Amino acid sequence: MSFPWAEHYAPKHPVMRWLDEKLPLPRLVYSAVGPGYPVPRNLNYFWNFGILAGLALGIQIVSGIILAMHYAANGTVAFDSVEHIMRDVNSGWLIRYAHMNGASFFFIVVYIHIFRGLYYGSYKAPREMVWLLGVVIFLLMMATAFMGYVLPWGQMSFWGAQVITGFFSAIPVVGEPIREWLLGGFAPDNAALNRFFSLHYLLPFVIAGVIVLHIWSLHIPGSNNPTGVDVQGPQDTVPFHPYYTAKDGFGAGVFLVCYALLTFFAPNYLGHPDNYIPANPLSTPAHIVPEWYFLPFYAILKSFTFNFLWIPAKLWGVMAMFGSILLLFFLPWIDGSPVRSANYRPLYQKFFWILLVDVLILGYLGQAEVTPMVVLASQICAIYYFSHFLIILPIVSRIERPLPLPNSITESVLHGEAAEAAPIGLAAASH
Amino acid sequence: MLARIFAPIVVGLGFVTALVFAILFTPHDAAQPNVVEEFHKDPKAIHYASDGPLGKFDRQQLQRGFQVYQEVCSACHSIRLVHFRDLEEIGFTKPEVKAIAKQYKIEQPSINPDTGEATTRKNLPSDPIPWNFANEIAARAANNNALPPDLSLMVKAREGGAPYIYSLLTGFAPVPANLPASNRPAPNLHYNPYFANLNIAMPPPLTADGQVEYSDGTKATVDQMARDVSAFLIWTAEPKLEARHRAGIGVVIFLLIATVLAYMSYRNIWAGKKH
Ligand code: HEM
Questions:
Q1: Is A183 helix (H, G, I), strand (E, B) or coil?
Q2: Chain B residues close to A391, C-beta within 8 Å
Q3: A79, A153 in Cβ contact below 8 A?
Q4: Is B119 near chain A, with CB under 8 Å?
Q5: Looking at the structure, do residues A161 and A133 belong to the same domain, yes or no?
Q6: What was the pLDDT predicted at A422?
Q7: Do residues A202 and A196 lie in contact, with contact meaning Cβ atoms separated by under 8 Å?
Q8: What confidence tens digit (pLDDT) does each residue in B238-250 have?
Q9: Which of chain B's residues have a Cβ under 8 Å away from the Cβ of A308?
Q10: How many domains does chain A fold into?
Q11: Is residue A376 included in any domain, yes or no?
């Protein structure tokens, strides 16, 4: 693994030597996140977000386990058991708000992490497997978050579960039976709540397992960097520890400050008021909206309003919504450009920024009231989303003329090109 | 090689064509002018002692709010998540809480230990505050088939929070002359422009100054009572608000210091290394 100049673990203390012989765990840590892992010297702050995602997962697992000690997964008491946590359990309000907002921060961090990968071409060879495992993690996160949102058994929990499991009934013939099988009934009820709780507890550990694979496969080629140029020698790298442990420590501090501000001073800002009303199958909320991190995909779903080619609009919507994520699996092969970093791909770079704005607009439209203008806007944005990945990228990546690349990471650092390494426009902010 | 270029393009064109057809063939009627939107009002801007990151409850006000709840709202609404003992948190002493529980006009449902028949008994501090109605059906029967919702979490369960409740309580108004017939209140409904659909089944609960008599000398105007009861409902919805604010200040200060130290150590370690 890694580069030949990586430092080797050489324990001095007899106890550590003994341990290294019996169970070389310190050796593993040393060469995974210690001095034995050489990392490009020019990484910018966007490379903090992988570690931050790991931190967010840790926070979710710890707070989640404590919540599970007091939560009761039964339709008649689930809502009240959450209020019991908020009112009677010592610091229960803190644990619950930390978990609620931790989920949001997890997604914020992972979305930045994904867009970092899109900008710097981290999904390309030789890191395709890192990317594929990343998309698997993303899908698992979405499933986990969806099921977690059902647990408090408020109005949005219930109706969100109703709508999302309803996607399956769009599948012809087998759709309705699949939906009933998933829910264990005709509508979300105890059976569904219980299995969602069981899976919601399980999946974060599956995610943790996939993260191990994600990092394992990353450590074979080593990290990409803002120039996208391969590491050529020891002068291009620094040992992970202490250089990036220090930088990640600072990043974690900034992350935790933002997270604490929201958790302590606006804990319900990102939530929906209807989820403080107990679930009621007989009363449909005026607007059913998913959590904010699903909104762009929800907007794509709703933008298909026409039974094109005899396929019902609803089925198109569901296919497009899943397709909009699954297409990420093919990205390493759709993009044919040999250059990784968008800093040297002038044409791709423009489309990248359009995509980012497009996704933000889709997010806004996902929660807006459905008016003809909103539908039209989401249709246009959905057209761009699919065109970007499936039409523009295969063509642009093969016709654009990239800018000249620096000869090496060190050269780019020493010739004052470091500023260009941050995405254009953000360069000033990062220095 | 060619497949890598054309396969995505074919799939992409599939989705794009479906969307283009959707744009062309779904009727884009001009948006209907929305009557409710035209008459609906946003909550008035009012402020509470508990607002902001340093906010604390005004305990006098919460006690007045509890009085309004007890004397007016409790005829119809429950606050089922609040126990009598919780009232200690808004400044009542233990004996006071005991007395409030004992004298509470609605008794606690219970079972006669000798016969097993349903009965009621006096409240204890450990009891949840009981509802005036035995169940939802009884509550609807007494309210022209409308259900007075539980108020414990109302502040967090409505867009607009406490200012919305204040506005609702003070917002009952004569029906505007230009309101279309379709949006005029049906029998037993009351026009209130702060309510989502303009017509609420709740009769105006706060109607006259002096409807309750405050013992702390505050003048019980309708406005004052509405402020007090909505402040009280902030507390019922978020009883740990003060602890949260206090902990938050400490945690954020601690994290800021830790972050500055982390930044300094980062600069120190990277000093002399161009990157
Ligand atoms: C639970 C969520 C995740 C965790 C904990 C996680 C963790 C990490 C860590 C620690 C790194 C190395 C540090 C860095 O480059 O930032 C990394 C790299 C990477 N991750 Fe993730 N990741 C997660 C989700 C994802 C997702 C959803 C994707 C994409 C769909 C993704 C794609 C990548 C890629 C392509 C790299 C290599 C970046 C490079 O070397 O430039 N990750 N991840």
A1: helix
A2: 8-9, 12-13, 16
A3: yes
A4: no
A5: yes
A6: 54
A7: no
A8: 999 999 999 999 9
A9: 17-18, 21-22
A10: 2
A11: no
| A48 DSSP assignment | G
> Rounded CA gap, B36 and B200, in Å?
13
Preceding peptide of A242 cis, ω within 30° = yes
- Within a domain: residue A345? no
A421 has pLDDT over 90: no
Least CA distance to B259: which residue of chain A?
Answer: A253
- The domain ranges of chain B are 32-78+151-175+191-255
Ligand 1 neighbour A223 (Cβ under 6 A): yes
Mean pLDDT of chain A: 94
Q: Which CATH class is domain B32-78+151-175+191-255?
A: mainly alpha
CB-CB contact of A293 with A107 (8 Å): yes
Using alpha carbons, select from A300, A297, A287 the residue that is nearest to residue A375: A300
Q: Are A329 and A129 in contact (CB under 8 A)?
A: no
Name residue A266's amino acid. Answer: A
Give the dihedral sign, CA A278/A282/A286/A292.
positive
Show which of residues 390-429 on chain A sit within 8 Å of chain B, judged by CB atoms.
390-391, 393-395, 398, 413-414, 418
Query: What's the A113 CA to ligand 1 centre distance in angstroms?
Result: 6
- Show which of residues 68-97 on chain A sit within 8 Å of chain B, judged by CB atoms: 80, 83, 86-87, 93-94, 97
ipTM of the complex, rounded to two decimals: 0.94
B181 and B175 Cβ atoms separated by less than 8 Å: no
For residues A96 and A221, membership in a common domain is answered with: yes
Structure tokens at B242: 């003060």
Give yes or no for residue A135 CB within 6 A of ligand 1.
Answer: yes
Write the pLDDT tens digit of every residue in A334-371.
999 999 999 999 999 999 999 999 999 999 999 998 88
Q: Ligand 1 center to residue A134 CA distance, Å?
A: 6
For A26, which DSSP code?
A: H
Residue ranges making up the domain that contains A23: 1-36
Query: B1, B17, B13, B18: which is closest to A392 by C-alpha?
Result: B13
Q: Is the pLDDT of residue A264 over 70?
A: yes
**What distance in Å separates the CA atoms of residue A188 and residue A348, rounded to the nearest whole number?**
45
Q: What is the pLDDT of residues B172-203, one digit of tens each?
A: 999 999 999 989 999 999 999 999 999 999 99
3-state secondary structure of B108: strand
